Amino acid sequence: MRLTVILSTYNAPRRLGLVLTGYEEQKFDGFDIVVADDGSTDATGELIEEHRSRGRLSLSHVWHPDEGFRKCAILNRAIEAATGEYLVISDGDCIPRPDFLGVHARLARQGRFLSGGRCQLTRELSDSLETDDVASGRVFDPAWLARCRGLARPRDGMKLRSPSLSILLDRITPTRATWNGHNASGWRRDIVEVNGFDERLGYGGEDRELGERLSNHGVQAFQIRHRAVCFHLDHDRGYVDPAVVKRNDEIRRAVTSGSRPHWTEHGIVKAGTEATPETAMEGPAGL
Question: What pLDDT does 236 receive?
Fold first, then answer.
């Protein structure tokens, strides 16, 4: 099974560089990466070229002009560009632990998508973290994190325990399994069949909405928040708009009630175009 990792980013080359270093250290090697760039300046493209030149990652860069928060639109373009049959979707500010992709690949099953978690790093550590901290594996060491007080939420330490305990914690956690933009995965075919992300949505639950339509389509969420671990770099979010969050909530209520639709007219295939779900399925992945 071939994986494509899709990483969303916007004008954060330093953070993206740390994340790409994390993917260079993955124990699983059957993957490529598509960076879904929501209109960054040239610095991001230069950073991607620098990592591509190292020869350790198969990298492609999908970009559109900066016209505000259009993360869902660029994610859909990245889904179209994906070459893998299975997609792991995360953010360019989430550093994967070396076993991250291996966990997703091992637990992938037909008829389900995987719902992963994250460990929130403090702002101090997020701002001071260096490439060698990732490449050496220090940032994933619970003792090192404790010494530098690197976890913003002490309960995140539960995600760094033994694999057997992580399995148990995933079974008993009261947290609902949802599609989380920082750490989720599913079959490309399933995602195309619900027409990808709804491009009407801005920041605030836009990732969850995809998972809700997948569930309406019969694709079940499976909890792996304690097994598939990534480390989130803290930063400001100047794009948060309460009015947009409210509108997102209204769209999501329409998805989770009534006829519970699985298809959006505002996704990969647009209403009124000649494209069809079948032609979307004939993209680079060749599914």
Answer: 83
127 and 152 Cβ atoms separated by less than 8 Å:
no
Statement: residue 157 has pLDDT above 90: no
| Host H or E run for residue 27 | none
Q: Element (H or E) spanning 113, and its range?
A: strand 112-115
Q: Give 123's contacts (C-beta < 8 A, 6+ positions apart).
A: 152, 234, 235
Give the pLDDT confidence of 84-107 residue by residue, as tens digits. Answer: 999 999 999 999 999 999 999 999
Q: Which residues contact 143 (CB under 8 A, 6 or more apart)?
A: none
Burial 189-198 (b: 16+ CB within 10 A, else e): ebbbbbbbbb
Q: Is the pLDDT of residue 9 over 70?
A: yes
Taking alpha carbons only, the member of 36, 174, 6 closest to residue 104 is 6
> Domains, the chain, ranges and CATH?
3-266 (3.90.550.10)
